[in-house]
Amino acid sequence: MTKGHTRVGVRVAIVDPLPVFRHGAVAALTAAGHVVQTPTDVVGWATASSEGIVVLTVLAENDWIGLTTLRAAQPQVKLVILLEDTAVAASVRAVKSGAVSVLPRRATPEALCRCIDAVVDGIAMLPTDVVTTLAAEAREHGTVVPVSLAKIGWLRALASGTTVSQLAVHAGYSERAMYRLLRDLYQDLGVGNRVEALILAHGRGWLR
């Protein structure tokens, strides 16, 4: 945190099967100024407001299904995925399922706080090997749909930390319409979410 700057807290949901883990995460993030809850119905929590971050531990296949359900119910919510399996394939799967950041479950409370702060600032936190793998996949799949300069501008704005709400105001759309237009853009690019789109855009030199 920058000296003299007070970070505005955000709504954060912690979803993990271990009470001790949840307690530690809640204590750390609450101390950092965030409003933290441990909802049993995370889909309901997420759909109650478009703003917020869900920290979700994925341990088994049922958790992946829950992640897909959550993403489908509320695409605007930001997802930080904690993985016991730190293999690149699992992290790549998390990003393709909608995660904006991925951390090992054994990460310290301080690392989790830094990750949440980064997400608030519009920055994804991913292992280097994951970024490399996603970039390689992006290079293998060229888009067949022309991308306008305006849409490349949207990607540049998102990469610089502009929120979707701010982008919508600048582009002259409602926030809901902006999310829909961005989803269409990601589909045109052959990617599943913002992180993948920005990796692809970086690889093509659009963010310079």
Quick structural summary:
The chain has 208 residues and is an alpha/beta fold. It has ten helices and five strands, in the order βαβαβαβαβαααααα. The longest helix is centred in the last third of the chain and has 15 residues, at 175-189.
Task: Give an overview in words.
- The protein has helices at about 20-30, 40-45, 60-75, 90-95, 110-120, 130-140, 150-160, 165-170, 175-190, 195-205; strands spanning about 10-15, 35, 55-60, 80-85, 100-105.
- The chain is globular.
- Strands 2-1-3-4-5 form a five-stranded parallel beta sheet, with helices on both faces.
- The chain contains ten helices and five strands; from the N terminus they run βαβαβαβαβαααααα.
- The model is unreliable at about 1-5 (pLDDT under 50).
- With about 210 residues, the chain is α/β, with parallel strands linked by helices.
- It has two domains: about 10-130, 3-Layer(aba) Sandwich (Rossmann fold), CATH 3.40.50.2300; about 140-205, Arc Repressor Mutant, subunit A.
Large-scale geometry: globular
Strand content: 5-15%
Largest sheet: 5 strands, parallel
Mean pLDDT: 87
Helices and strands, in order, run as EHEHEHEHEHHHHHH
Tally of individual domains: 2
List the helices and strands and how they pair.
Elements: E1 11-15, H1 19-31, E2 35-37, H2 42-47, E3 53-58, H3 61-73, E4 78-83, H4 88-96, E5 99-104, H5 109-120, H6 128-140, H7 149-159, H8 164-171, H9 175-189, H10 194-203
Parallel strand pairs: 1-2, 1-3, 3-4, 4-5
Helix pairs in contact: 1-5, 4-6, 6-10, 7-10, 8-9
